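step: validate -> pass
step: tokenize input -> pass
step: predict -> running
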Amino acid sequence: MGKEYLLKIPEYLHYLKDYYNAGTAKKYTEVVKEFAENTKKISGEPTPEDAILSYIYKKRDVDKISVNTANYRMAVLKSFFKYIRYDIDTHKIRPMREPITGVIQDNHISYEELKKMLNFCEGDNKLMVTILLVTGARLSEACMIKYRDIVINSDKSISITIVTLKRRGYNQRKLKIRPEWAVKIIEEAVLKNTNKDSKLWNETPGCLRERIYIIAKKAGLKGVHPHTFRHALATYLLNIKGASPGGVQKTLGHASLETTSRYSHGGDKDIDDTLSSLE
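step: predict -> pass
step: emit ->
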């Protein structure tokens, strides 16, 4: 879909003037224009859902808007996409709630907190959480991984080949996984499977997303979605382990350093293998 939806905004603004009262139209116009400006700055071709989340998180992190204001702005953007006949994924774009004591909120969940989810799942679910933790793969990319894409190396590491779906044409990245806890979980699953051409999960991204919600709830983590793993891994590698932005860019399959730099808060230590610092 690219960013073609932005071309529909002028038409929507005229619609607001014709069918909404002046006060409401003014407020809606402000939100939609801000959303458009923020989306234009995002490299690549973000989905409407990713563009909305990018805008909302920026408003919360930078402008410190309240949960109610964030939900109001999401409702406005849902109205816009409904007008252009695009069905927003309501599992991904859901109303926010005020933080609950003792529960981690939104996308500020740390990598170490996400690792605790492993204690609340087993079997396929444990494999899924592990793959997302150590590769930072997009959920759609994880769904494409086949057993033949995983190689058990003689040095007690595991190599995983992931197709980078966000880029035009066919691109792939090979990641070397070393943490013993991750190698053990992945190796056990690989050795049990005899059909190397089969996928790790014969389910849609939506089905796996629901699994993640359930596991996160058991672990006491609120607001976890598939992209949370990418955010947490990037932040951990850049800011805790001092990985280079270029290395993290290649690891996560970002189209540009501009995307990667959003997760960096300083530190630019050049290392040969970005994932070697994972524990």
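step: describe -> The longest helix spans residues 22-40.
step: cleanup -> pass
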